[in-house]
Amino acid sequence: MSEYVPAELRRVVRERAKQRCEYCLIHENESFLPHEPDHIIAIKHQGRTTESNLAWTCFTCNRAKGSDLASVDPATGEVVRLFNPRSDTWEDHLEVNEDGFLNAKSAIGRVTVALLKLNRQELLAIRTLFSKTRRKPR
Ligand SMILES: [Zn+2]
User: Fold this and answer.
1) Which 3-state string (H, E, C) describes 94-133?
2) How many domains would you assign to the chain?
3) Over 50: is that where the pLDDT of 138 sits?
4) Is residue 81 part of a domain?
5) Domain assignment present for 96
6) pLDDT tens string 47-66
7) Which residues neighbour ligand 1 (ion) by CB within 5 Å?
8) Residue 119: how many CB atoms within 10 A of its CB?
9) Spatial distance between the Cα atoms of 60 and 74, rounded to a whole number of angstroms
10) Average pLDDT, the chain
């Protein structure tokens, strides 16, 4: 969730992400609502307001994630941690198919897609619309 993050730290996190949501990859220019910093490990779980614990996220992903750190894998029923943009590589866990649909490549990918609703209708429409110019976050 969004907590107070100093302007300079926000700028660093935003530029590091190239202004894309680090979960769904939507660029700020493709979103109606402004992107914001996410505490990957929420403050209530002893997360800190540091570069290494912040991710740049779209409003919707940030609200869907909330303070969660893990979820139940829809395929196995096991509790699995969420994708961590600071320690995981996006392409190791997720991929975009030609229809703009995100496919999970791991249990971490599956729980992240499910909890953050990464295949929600507006994302599919945006990914399809911008598919010819889509860039990766790194
Ligand atoms: Zn997002």
Assistant:
1) EEECCCCCEEECCHHHHHHHHHHCCCCHHHHHHHHHCCCC
2) 1
3) no
4) yes
5) yes
6) 999 999 999 999 999 999 99
7) 21, 23-24, 58, 61
8) 17
9) 21
10) 91
